[in-house]
């Protein structure tokens, strides 16, 4: 299975942060596809969505570390631009790693929701990314609470895109009740 096909099958484009950052998404898919393909080929008995979760976990860890290394120089650059050219130009300077971290966080949380993983854990992951990105977002006048809400919304959208299938004896009894009552 191709990474781009799986993401399309899972309907990740419904997240505006992903659909609005097509260049960042395309770059991430291009760089991660070879590893995803290799893992799927080496372990075909494991659901590709679980491989995606692993890939996104790895990608989130790496991108977070990369962002932490680049954040200080990036803020210094923004400060220099602000002092020399003004805030209106400094805000236009984008740390590409922060854009990738935002994208990966949305994809990661969406996938966690899609797989019906623990809500509390997803919230902790969202909060972790929000705190990491906070200083840069504040400089750019971006509401960090709004970003946190968007992250949580991505998780919820993942859950909605893959509703749990009800099964078991309780489901069977409800079906029988509905059949006899109608």
Q: Your description of this structure?
A:
- 80% of the residues lie in helices and 0% in strands.
- The chain has 182 residues and is mainly alpha-helical.
- The chain is globular.
- The mean pLDDT is 86.
Q: Tags for this entry?
A:
182 residues; mainly alpha; single chain; 9 helices
Largest sheet: none
Structural class: mainly alpha
- Point out poorly predicted stretches: none
Query: What is the terminal-to-terminal distance?
Result: 44 Å
Shape: globular
Q: Topology as H/E string? A: HHHHHHHHH
What is Rg? Answer: 20 Å
How would you summarize the topology of this molecule?
Layout (H helix, E strand, L loop, with lengths): L2 H7 L6 H4 L2 H21 L5 H38 L1 H4 L5 H19 L4 H21 L4 H18 L7 H13 L1
Helix pairs in contact: 3-4, 4-6, 4-7, 6-7, 6-8, 7-8
Tell me briefly what this model is:
With 182 residues, this protein is an all-alpha fold. 80% of the residues lie in helices and 0% in strands.
């Amino acid at each position: 299975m191709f990474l781009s096909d799986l993401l399309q099958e899972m309907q990740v484009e419904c997240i505006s942060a992903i659909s609005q950052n097509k260049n960042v998404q395309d770059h991430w898919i291009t760089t991660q596809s070879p590893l995803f393909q290799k893992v799927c080929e080496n372990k075909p008995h494991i659901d590709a969505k679980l491989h995606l979760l692993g890939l996104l976990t790895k990608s989130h860890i790496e991108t977070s570390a990369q962002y932490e290394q680049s954040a200080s120089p990036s803020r210094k650059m923004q400060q220099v631009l602000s002092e020399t050219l003004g805030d209106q130009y400094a805000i236009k300077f984008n740390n590409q790693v922060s854009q990738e971290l935002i994208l990966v966080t949305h994809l990661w949380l969406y996938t966690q929701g899609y797989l019906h993983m623990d809500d509390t854990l997803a919230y902790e992951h969202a909060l972790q990314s929000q705190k990491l990105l906070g200083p840069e977002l504040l400089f750019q006048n971006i509401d960090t609470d709004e970003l946190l809400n968007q992250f949580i919304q991505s998780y919820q959208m993942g859950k909605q895109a893959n509703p749990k299938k009800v099964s078991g004896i309780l489901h069977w009894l409800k079906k029988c009740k509905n059949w006899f009552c109608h």
